[in-house]
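Re: the request from the purification team.
They wanted to know what the chain is likely to look like in 3D before they choose a buffer screen. I agreed to run a prediction and write the result into the notebook, where they can find it.
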Amino acid sequence: MKVIIIGAGIGGCCLAHGLLQNGINVKVFERSARELLGLPGYGIHINPFGQQALQECLPQKNWKTFLEKSVAIGGHSRFYDEKLRLLADILGSHWMGGKVIDESRLSISRAELREIMLQGLDSAIQWEKTFDRYELRADGRVDVCLHDGERHTADVLVGADASNSRVRKQLLPTFERISAGVSVIVGRTPLVWADCLPNLLIDGSPNTIVSRADDSMFVSMWRAPVDTKVPVAEAEIAPFIVWAYVVAEDALPLGVPTFSQRELLDLVILRAGHFDEGLKKVMFHSELESISLVPLKTMPRLPLWQPSIVTLIGDAVHNMTPMAGIGANTALRDARLLSNALVTVANGRAGLEEAISKYETAMRLYANEAVTQSLSNARNAVSPSRLKRMAFRTMLQLAEAFPGLKRKIFPPAK
């Protein structure tokens, strides 16, 4: 069996490793260059599903390096009001393997994770190769056509080419991302300026600031390259406070997409006048080059489609807002599930389209839950209803006061 993967992101690389570990012929085509012009300036949290996928799919050497480079941050998510008074401290949980397990995240810089994922794939990945289209063959295989005129034949084509996936556009031409109606202005600040914040706010856990006004903030501590313009091997990794100011798009001034980074930061500080002075200090001392405006988009709920030898993983099929913090983990979960499905085919225990159909059916269930939750979180974060926001804050306080109620309000994720 030969599998072609379009895209060498986290999901695509995890899938490639999983297949190679089981003797399946894999080729990955990636449109970008091997050396990034700028390293990712933020980190990532890997939850139990992501950890399971990495442990099962990666070679032991890669998995060991991941454990060495990552930091355990537990499974808590905390909610505060705009004056940093704790509303609720939630220990997350999941249904996994038929049991409920507590959330337990590992934090790592995206730059380090990328290098770990690429280790051992030198012969499998071809860089600066852009996918153009695929053509289904009469013999039941698929031809993959690249922009440079090359054609490659495979038994399976997997689109792992991110939110603007060209594979998806051909496979599901009417299935497109929609605007969430929400934007975030993001930045990062060296940890030295976080002395004014509570310790729990900078222990690596995700924190949501639930404001009385029609805005919210996300705050966490992540490790990332100090200088994003050097090779990963030379990069110093240090902790930063990463913040994201969440606001409805229609509440932003006209022309905001053209604002400079200085103007974006000034806008946030002006709008966040009702927030705690410590938070404003952190934002004021942000690295200016890290400031950016990100209009949030999402896939709608995934529809049913006819299974074939062309399939999708990660953002290519279930791109979601970052407001649930599980996009990359869902891509890793896809990679593990699809890898296992294709291994059953290679071992003669299942037919190809049958295995892909089972993968897509299972993926659709948890992906739809994640997409729905992340979009709901984003829209609730900027709700203009003062009553709704106060009701949510009251619910959080009640959950914190009554553990039994907390378990009902925050049941295990699937």
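For the purification team: The chain is about 35% helix and 30% strand.
Please add any questions underneath this entry.
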